[in-house]
Amino acid sequence: MATTAATPLLEEHVIDAVDHRGLAAGRSNTGRWNAAWFIIGVEVAERFAYYGIASNLISYLTGPLGQSTAVAAANVNAWSGISSILPVLGAFVADAFLGRYRTIIIASLIYVLGMSLLTLSALLVPSTSESTNVTTSMLNLLFFFSLYLVAIGQSGHKPCVQAFGADQFDEKDTKEKRDRSSFFNWWYLSMSAGICLAIVVVVYIQEAVGWALGFGIPCVFMVISLVLFVLGRRSYRYSKSRQGKETNPFTRIGRVFLVAFKNRRLSQVQTELEANPSQGSQEKLRFLNKALLAPHASTEEDNVCSVSDVEDATALVGLIPVWLTTLGYALPYAQYMTFFTKQGATLERTIFPGVKIPSASLQVLIGIAIVLFVPIYDRVLVPISRSITKDPCGITTLKRIGTGMVLATLTMVVAALVESKRIQTAKEYGLIDEAETTVPMSIWWLVPQYLMLGLADVLTLVGMQEFFYSQVPTELRSIGLALYLSALGVGSLLSSLLVSVIDLVTGGDAGNSWFNSNLNRAHLDYFYWLLAVISAVGLSVFLFVSKSYIYRRVDGV
């Protein structure tokens, strides 16, 4: 009787997790959806703040700051890229030193400071008649300093909040593991709702009322995000460090490469990993198995790495080809905040007499597509595919990513065709040299490319989040999500580089640049066709790489 009564008590606690007091986390009163919704709410507020800046940033740069289209697009892509790459550093600090909770708190404070200074810089922008070279330089310095301070704040916030949210589900419990897969879908849906709100409300305020208020409102939401996060402290599950030697995970995994290199000349013997290939050791990475060998069968047992360490190192190396091929998706993804917005600014945007929508507001269609499609995917398509494939997630994450990459390639094709139509319409009405005149073509022509990109996001971006989170060692899951973000960041930087090089080669505004500030003389359609080709090539390589990828056994695949 005593044994029977004691069994439920053991099942009430989650292995490898503690509560806010450092005690074993109870399954019934910590984590799961109650804690996850708190964290999702934090992300909604943070995304509202971020996109309150990002969605219309190109209009601010070409408007009050007076930059050309090509320079402004390059600046937006550079900032967006660095904002997405820096989370690798923030995730490193979290996983190696501070932990996710503390990193989120510190990053949020930096985030709020950056947004406060951004609001101040918008307040100080003088009218054209009052501006001088000195004041313009100082304001530009303050603006870009505060903008990149926001990027630094996001570097700790973005990867850690989502990893912390996914940590609320125990992967060793069948039901909670299934809930964790749904978490990524609902996370992205809720996040998109925050983005939609920012695009509809903040962008309108920026253009109709003023930029200072338009930057100030997101700052307030970031403060709300921080307060909300702290309020949920008692309900969270916190990851527990490995038992035994408290080794930094980066040191632990880095040691595998060092020991394998030292043992490179030793004769290979069958290791536990090779004897059990189902555990996930990839044939191409057998070199790392030499970290399991003791030189000359000596007493140097302390220099031998464990099987789990070698598995973790192998898993990280195996992610590199997948990460590289997702850049083919990141390039098209980088366009919606820059050239899609500038395209819309040239078109007829009147929806009611006297009511003209900002061109950046069309980005809300991406969010609408996500909000509509995620429930269909999670509640209809996944159960159907689960019954066919017997996979708990319906289809594998790599198949999900690849399907989205197909859609992204088609999005660029559609965008190129619509832009060709826009240029042709401008020629027919003699508006080639009338840059400020509205082209008599409805902005609704851009709807398909926005909706298609939204559907691609649901498949590829959510798939990347779940893939990189689940395929890295448990202690490095902030790094896993940072890898997904860094792919988007590198894509933005590559887009920025591509724009700068093409603009230089085609002569800039003085020549026939593809990115002439007068878009009627530009050739965005050529650029979109180029991106379609690059995306298609990336997709082909991705399909080749994904066929040979072996999922980590910890996820039960």
Which properties best describe this structure?
557 residues; mainly alpha; Growth Hormone, Chain: A; 2 domains; 3-stranded antiparallel beta sheet; 19 helices; 7 strands
Describe this structure in words.
The protein has 557 residues and is mainly alpha-helical. The chain has two domains: 21-240, Growth Hormone, Chain: A (Up-down Bundle), CATH 1.20.1250; 248-263 and 285-292 and 303-552, MFS general substrate transporter like domains (Growth Hormone, Chain: A, Up-down Bundle). Helices cover 66% and strands 4% of the residues. The chain contains 19 helices and seven strands. A three-stranded antiparallel beta sheet has the order 2-1-3. Strands 4-7 form a two-stranded parallel sheet. Strands 5-6 form a two-stranded antiparallel ribbon.
- The CATH C-level name of the largest domain is Mainly Alpha
The dominant shape is globular
> Which band does the percent of strand residues land in?
under 5%
Second-tier CATH architecture of the largest domain: Up-down Bundle
Count of structural domains = 2
Let me know the number of strands.
Answer: 7
Give the helix/strand class.
mainly alpha
Give me the CATH superfamily of the largest domain: MFS general substrate transporter like domains
The average pLDDT score comes to: 81
Number of helices in the DSSP assignment: 19
What is the N-to-C succession of helices and strands? HEEHHHHHHHHEHHHHHEEEHHEHHH
| Main beta sheet | 3 strands, antiparallel
Task: Determine the fraction of residues in helical runs and give it as a percent range.
Answer: 55-70%
Order of strands, main sheet, comes to: 2-1-3
CATH topology-level name of the largest domain: Growth Hormone, Chain: A
Spatial extent as radius of gyration = 25 Å
What is the terminal separation in angstroms? 38 Å
Membrane topology: Multi-pass membrane protein
Protein name: Protein NRT1/ PTR FAMILY 5.13-like isoform X1
Keywords: Membrane, Phosphoprotein, Transmembrane, Transmembrane helix, Transport
Family: Belongs to the major facilitator superfamily. Proton-dependent oligopeptide transporter (POT/PTR) (TC 2.A.17) family.
